[in-house]
Amino acid sequence: MSRVFAGSLLGVLILATAGCKSDRRSADAQPASVASADTSMAADSSNAAAPATVTVTAADYRFDAPNSVPAGLVTIDLVNHGKEMHQAQIVKLEDGKTVADLAKALASQGPPPSWIKFVGGPNGVAPGGEAHATSALAPGNYAFLCFIPSPDGKMHAAKGMVHPFRVTAGSSAAAADAPHGDVTMTLADYTFTLSQPLTAGRHTILVENSGPQPHEVVLLKLAPGKKAEDFGKWAETMKGPPPAEPLGGVTLLDKGGRGSFTADLGSGDYGLICFVPDSKDGKPHFVHGMMKTIKVS
């Protein structure tokens, strides 16, 4: 498998079948610096339905993130203090499973087990950048993971960039809400469809996966003269300057999943791309045409 920006557990499992197991370490090995004291979890008291806000700080290769998050709508503010791109994929571990079980799944062959649910989160952002995404979280066991590879080809999750957390029952009215936006983006096999053209300014974009398999969206600010496919080609080797700056988006969503993200857009060319490996041939979805260059005016 080529070294692509594979924002999914599927990508890790495909790498495992290719003989990369020896590079993995337990997802339970958490850095001592991870603590909830330095995180922000605050809901707007003037609006009971406002999402809780959680700050997750990414570094090379760890998360500083809370150990507990309230149920309901939760906005993850991802701040990248690392020297590489990072994301915060949220996975729900059902049937009482823990990160110890997740570590075993990462090291095994075959598709991900049914108890792993992909519920979005802020997608890749460049060093020094921030990304903001909202998900609806039910009570249970979860984990933040980063599946972006380093230039050496190893996924950040394989280097210990995994942080477990618990979603606890909350009393907020937001618990019954779903993510929303002023523009809707529909993901399918293998397309991005926008409910209306994107314009310059701040937008909250609702992302819905209507495809039969998981999908993600990475938002790219393209360099002059570049297209979304140029970033896909660059991601295979990560050599030379990138032809685009990743601005976030929404990480892997299961079929029927919904999430939203916010973005401040200026005029210019942008790209949408999905790096999730296909369930049939393992090739990233952008190889099947799931990429799009758009103009914002």
Class per helix and strand makeup: mainly beta
Say which CATH homologous superfamily of the largest domain is assigned.
Cupredoxins -  blue copper proteins
What is the residue-mean pLDDT, rounded to a whole number? Answer: 84
Unreliable residue stretches = 1-48
Structure description:
The termini are far apart. The chain has helices at about 10-15, 100-105, 230-235, and strands at about 40, 50-60, 60-65, 70, 70-80, 90-95, 115-120, 130-135, 140-145, 160-170, 185-190, 190-195, 200-210, 215-220, 245-255, 260-265, 270-275, 290-295. It has about 300 residues and is mainly β. Mean pLDDT is about 85; it is low at about 1-50. The strands form three sheets. Strands 1, 2, 3, 5, 8, 11, 12, 13 and 16 form a nine-stranded mixed β-sheet that branches. It contains three helices and 18 strands. It has two domains: about 10-175, Cupredoxins -  blue copper proteins (Immunoglobulin-like, Sandwich), CATH 2.60.40.420; about 185-295, Immunoglobulin-like (Sandwich).
Summarize the structure.
The chain is mainly beta and 297 residues long. The protein has helices spanning 9-17, 99-106, 228-235; strands at residues 41-42, 52-59, 62-64, 68-70, 72-80, 89-93, 116-118, 130-137, 140-145, 162-168, 183-188, 191-194, 201-209, 215-222, 244-253, 258-265, 268-273, 291-296.
